[in-house]
Amino acid sequence: MELDPRTTALIVVHAQGDVVGPDGAFADFFYNQVVERDVIAKIAGLADQIRDAGGTVVFTRVAWKPDLSDLEVNSPILGIVQQSGCLQEGAPLAEIVEPLTPKDGDVVVTHQRVGGFQNSTLEDTLRSKGITTTVFAGVATNFSVEGTARNASDLGYRVVVVDDACSAATPESHAASIESLGLLAEIVTISDVTTALSSAASHA
Questions:
Q1: Mean pLDDT of all residues in 23-39
Q2: What are the residue boundaries of the Isochorismatase-like domain, all occurrences included (predicted)?
């Protein structure tokens, strides 16, 4: 695999307290696998590698107004948001978790749908930075990671999914999503990304 950091963005999906944290509204769904797969630490290391190589790090986060008046409930997972009152703008658990706190130069994109491109600034952000390769990590593999990755493919981006930097509610859900994405994206490991970035640096 080859990567040009200048045209590559790591897109970190929904690394928010309500999604990946032990006290979040979705903890019963996702927290066990986040811990078992050590996803947060792996994403942190991956993000540092991308930054150090001169690439772009983008965090997508989902959040609604404090009264949830902009929440359109058209799926069961968004019904959970309505019932629990989670992911409200300004609430601590709606923010990116502390180990992954965005750094100078990173981009944070907020949206209200499962996929990160819908009614958000994500595409404009990527286009303005000359990004052609999108590298995905985050939670949950079979919801917003896959949803956003599929949109990226439809929009013409090269799509890379970092298998060991993603997780879902169960290992089976994760594996099924990765298999489903296999014809739309390059499925790689953190080690693959490290090797590609090292090779790019040696040829710079």
A1: 98
A2: 8-189
Considering Cα of 56, then 60, then 66, then 71, what sign does the dihedral take?
A: positive
User: What HEC string does 94-126 produce?
Assistant: HCECHHHCCCCCCEEEEECCCCCCCCCCHHHHH
pLDDT tens profile 153-182: 999 999 999 999 999 999 999 999 999 999
d(CA 161, CA 187): 5
- Number of other CB atoms surrounding residue 166 within 10 Å: 26
Domain ranges within the chain, ordered by starting residue: 5-61+95-202
User: Is residue 26 pLDDT above 80, yes or no?
Assistant: yes
Domain 5-61+95-202 has CATH 3.40.50.720: no
Q: Look up tokens 């790090």; give the residue.
A: 57
The secondary element (H helix, E strand) that includes residue 172 is helix 171-181
67 pLDDT exceeds 90? yes
User: Mean pLDDT across the stretch 119-129?
Assistant: 98
